[in-house]
Specification:
It contains three helices and 28 strands. It is mainly β and 371 residues long. The protein folds into three domains: 103 residues, Sandwich (Immunoglobulin-like), CATH 2.60.40.10; 85 residues, Immunoglobulin-like (Sandwich), CATH 2.60.40; 164 residues, Glucose Permease (Domain IIA), CATH 2.70.70.10. The strands form five sheets. Strands 17, 20, 21, 22, 23, 24, 25, 26, 27 and 28 form a ten-stranded antiparallel sheet that branches. Strands 1, 2, 3, 4, 5 and 6 form a six-stranded mixed sheet that branches. The radius of gyration is 35 Å and the shape is elongated. The N and C termini lie far apart (100 Å).
């Protein structure tokens, strides 16, 4: 009896050693990425529970290796890449696993930007993105200076300006998009700038009018505006095109070179003057929050609206103000009435549009969401 038991145990031991009774397929653990940058190599790792023969098929190309731990370096084409791994042990038990690895192409953003501008014009840059790759960062520079970029799903907008007094030349515009894999795509454009050719306008203002322009009054108004800009919303808050706040005749254009009296300093007009009868309603050029509402010695009745994203509209010389600081106003809502208060020689609205505190041509905003 003992002899028979020993013989039986020996048989089973021999069978196991030769794999006769091995019916368990090898276990597999794999590290295979779902998404990889197209055109670049990537690595996979597969580990079996025992030494096996690996047969792999990648995009239809097969290979074999005898090992327990398989390491491969593969190259991804754009789109879906098919990987099939079969592990076969010494008893011909096999385990097959299938994977789909997406090769993500480089970003190819669509760019629309201001191509020509006159000194003082705003500059708008619009970008559109495909679903892949996922964009992590967008950077835009104009003449080497970074612009503020505002993103929404599949899109981005950057706003800048060409300073008054700029000479005729081409300003380099650079767009850099960095994706989820750290790949940077850079696109180069140019904004062709024309210098302002207008002659200097001599303004013969009375001593009584000029008397309000004292260093103390200028400092007060500058500090008031600086505080308003500092409280500005980071993100744009408008969704509709900007509108003309007053239907009036242009009495002085944006950027006009001016001299207050013979021998005085030459400055450039920072807004657009729209002449209209006193009491004419002044309407908000777009949705915004009131940051300043009050009367000042130089700017007269002044309202400043914060539209978000570094964009502010300013309304000078009002006879009456119809809003208060902190009010949320709608596009087209009346904020005040035309007057001739402050440093003014007749009823008109001095209207400014500023981007990051820099004055831009207000008329370039009319009828547009982004200039």
């Amino acid at each position: 009896m003992l002899a028979l038991l020993a013989l039986t145990l020996g048989f089973y031991s021999l069978a196991l050693s030769q794999g006769w009774l091995d019916r368990a397929a090898p276990g597999l653990e794999a590290q295979v990425p779902n998404r990889v940058p197209a055109g670049r190599p990537y690595k996979i790792f597969v580990s079996a529970s025992e030494p096996v023969i690996y047969t792999t098929s990648y995009n239809g190309r097969a290979s074999e290796a005898v090992t327990q731990n398989l390491r491969l370096t593969l190259n991804a084409r754009a789109g879906e890449n098919r990987l099939v791994v079969t592990a076969t042990d010494g008893a011909d038990n096999a385990t097959t696993t299938r994977y789909t690895v997406t090769g993500v192409p480089e970003a190819r953003p669509r760019v629309r930007a201001t191509e020509t501008a006159v000194a003082g014009d705003p500059v708008g840059v619009r970008l559109g993105f495909a679903a892949d790759p996922k964009i992590e960062e967008v950077a835009v520079t104009l003449d080497g200076s970074p612009l503020r970029v505002f993103r929404s799903p599949g899109r981005a907008v950057a706003l800048g300006s060409v300073p008054l007094g700029s000479e005729t030349r081409a300003l380099p515009l650079s767009v850099t998009v960095t994706d989820e894999f750290g790949r940077a795509t850079q696109l180069e454009r140019e904004v062709t700038v024309s210098a302002d050719p207008r002659a200097v306008e001599l303004l013969n203002l009375s001593p009584e009018v000029l008397s309000s322009s004292t260093p103390e009054n200028r400092e007060l108004e500058e500090k008031t505006l600086a505080a308003a800009y500092a409280r500005g919303f980071a993100q744009p808050r408008w969704r509709q095109p900007f509108l003309l706040p007053v239907k009036g005749e242009s009495s002085s254009s944006f950027g006009d070179p001016r001299q207050y009296g013979p021998g005085g300093n030459i400055s450039r007009h920072q807004g657009a003057d729209l002449a209209a009868p006193e009491g004419t309603p002044i309407r908000a050029t777009n949705t915004g929050t009131v940051r300043v509402a009050g009367f000042f010695s130089i700017k007269g009745g002044l309202v400043v609206l914060d539209h978000g994203g570094g964009v502010f509209s300013l309304y000078f010389h009002q006879s009456k103000i119809r809003v208060e600081v902190g009010d949320e106003v709608r596009r087209g809502q009346v904020v005040g009435e035309v007057g001739t208060t402050g440093l003014s020689t007749g009823p008109h609205l001095h209207w400014e549009m500023r981007v990051n505190e820099v004055a831009t041509n207000p008329l370039e905003w009319v009828g547009k969401v982004v200039p």
